[in-house]
Write a structure and sequence with these properties.
Length: about 230
């Protein structure tokens, strides 16, 4: 089974998805980190991010590996290797935050990322997290979830994440950036961020991740009556 989880930035979808995958013994794939990796690579190479062809070339040629976060004590949920180099936190910088929406809006970039994502998701036994998993990448996934939270709560979480990583941050600036990105991602021409028609919507504003995971596992038990988890 492939489980599709979508939602806006800092909604808790990655934390919930990773915990759920661990509980089920499934592979966990945060597709957002793939677009972040393209953005980080382009920034490293001083690429003009408005040059769609140049950014697409990076997406098609970069060597990206997503591995376990085990063995690290810095709070990572997985390890991102970009061209063989640990870039786990580099893809989470404010510069990447500010530019990833533009990079992910390019159709050829999305097509390349979706191709890779479908190759992984088609094997089953995966929890896939992103913004268009249930609508574009895996529209036939038997369980689709859309996890959201208030913009204020998401800004608070993003600020806490940065502080844990030793980065500075301003709450009001982060909140404005989250609101801007929501508007951009929700209105883009290709694969706009929105819940699938048959997605279950979960609000994480006042619910800890463990509670949401327990709720999802209960849903899976009900679903298994018609389609066993495998």
């Amino acid at each position: 089974m492939t489980i599709a989880i979508d939602g806006p930035a800092a909604s808790g979808k990655t934390t919930v998805g990773k915990m759920l995958a661990d509980q089920l013994g499934y592979l966990f794939l945060d597709t957002g980190c793939m677009y972040r990796a393209v953005t980080a690579a382009a920034l490293q190479q001083d690429t003009n991010l408005e040059d769609e062809a140049a950014v697409t070339h990076i997406a098609q040629t970069m060597q990206l590996e997503i591995a376990s976060g085990a063995g690290y004590d810095d709070g990572r949920q997985y390890t991102v290797l970009l061209d063989g180099r640990d870039s786990t936190w580099e893809i989470r910088t404010p510069a990447v935050d500010a530019n990833v929406s533009l990079v992910s809006s390019y159709l050829p970039v999305r097509q390349e990322m979706v191709r890779q994502q479908r190759a992984i998701g088609g094997k089953g036994g995966v929890v896939m997290v992103g913004r268009d998993i249930g609508t574009v990448v895996m529209p036939n996934a038997p369980l689709k979830l859309y996890i959201t939270a208030t913009a204020a709560e998401r800004a608070r979480r993003r600020l806490n994440d940065r502080q844990r990583q030793g980065q500075s941050g301003d709450y009001d600036h982060i909140l404005a950036d989250i609101i801007r990105r929501d508007e951009y991602d929700g209105s883009r021409t290709h694969s706009p961020m929105l819940p699938a028609a048959d997605a279950l919507i979960l609000d994480s504003s006042d619910k800890p991740a463990a509670t949401l995971v327990a709720d999802i596992l209960a849903m899976l038990e009900s679903l298994s009556a018609s389609q066993p988890v495998s």
